[in-house]
Amino acid sequence: MTDRTLDTGAIDAVPEADFMEQTVPAYPEDDDTDTEVPVGATEREATEADLLEQSIPVPLDDDYEDEGDAESEY
Which residue ranges have biased composition labelled Acidic residues (predicted)? Predict the structure, then answer.
């Protein structure tokens, strides 16, 4: 039986104490933690954390040729 009196907006709500704890920087002295949100970030349907993670540059040479490729050995 479904409880129709349940407030569905409260399911995703974050308690204020948890929110405050999560906003405290892990390394407050580190200058690199102040990453800016990309321009136009408010136009997307993603959280700010996802946008910041996606804006981190990744080197293109991520192939691990030194460890050997199983397909190239045959």
Answer: 60-74
The reply to whether the predicted model has a pTM over 0.85 is no
CA distances from 67 to 13, 45, 63, 72, 74 (A): 45, 39, 9, 11, 15
Which value, to the nearest 10 degrees, does the dihedral of the CA atoms of residues 62, 67, 69, 74 take? 160
- Can you tell me whether residue 27 is helix, strand or coil? coil
40-43: list long-range contacts, CB under 8 Å, 24+ apart: none
Q: Are the beta carbons of 38 and 44 closer than 8 angstroms?
A: no
